[in-house]
Amino acid sequence: MITSARNAKVQHLRALQRLAKRRREAGSFVVEGGRLAKEAVESGWPLRLALYTQRLQASDPELIRALDARGLAEQVSESVMAAAGDTQTPQGILLEVELRSMPMPAEVNFVLILDAIADPGNLGTLLRSAAAADCDAVLLAPGCADAFAPKVVRSGMGAHFRQPIQSLGWDEITRLVKERSLQPFVAEAWEGTPYEEENLAGPLALILGGEARGTGGEAARLNPRPIQIPMPGRTESLNVAAAGSILLFEVVRQRRAKAKP
């Protein structure tokens, strides 16, 4: 059992959680908690290390057996887990997972493009909503938070293991949108057609910008059609994660309606 927070493996996992540069150099990231650990195991992504507590082993022995079978699991004390984890309430397990991106599918007709979404919680929620809406891919333009930061991974609730998430420059994004013949739409607070009046059933790319400044000038080169969410209440705008989720599931609604005989 590891009982010291100074242990090299513990320090390694702490650094991976705190520093994007360390994640890039190591080519790995950290998953915390039993539910996400199961997602990682079931996804088939390569795992490098697992630290767990006796309490977690008692509550989920099957998960620990699966990790033991791979020769990855090491038990740590509760105090070490508290020092190693990123949450205020330790969840009893940390996994080091190889950092990778799922390949783009051969057929792409539903893409989410995120422009300068800097808040990790918002980014993770949008990744989760995109996975639930069966997006083909999420493209992260420059200025977005690191998709593999701890809060993003937790908020994504397994989305990282279910859909392609790629950080691309605008030249690459523009080329992909044009090559796949996707109609670009951009969400605006008070401009454009109300979203339910637009045809979102065809191949499309939905662009969302950060709350502070919206989308940048680079997104404009795609010449996207602006759409808005009508807001009869007294508020300036919606949180970008809430607005994005509404629009993603409007795409789902329209496509299901179109598919009905």
Please outline what is shown here.
This protein has helices at residues 8-18, 20-26, 34-43, 54-59, 61-69, 78-84, 120-132, 150-156, 170-179, 217-220, 240-259; strands at 28-32, 47-52, 73-75, 93-98, 110-115, 137-140, 165-167, 183-188, 193-194, 204-209, 225-228.
Considering the chains and any ligands shown, give keywords for the structure:
alpha/beta; single chain; 261 residues; elongated; 11 helices
Descriptive notes:
With 261 residues, this protein is α/β, with parallel strands linked by helices. It has 11 helices and 11 strands. The strands form 2 sheets. Strands 7-6-5-10-8-11-9 form a 7-stranded parallel sheet, with helices on one face. The chain has a 4-stranded mixed sheet with strand order 1-4-2-3, sandwiched between helices. The model has no long low-confidence stretch (mean pLDDT 93).
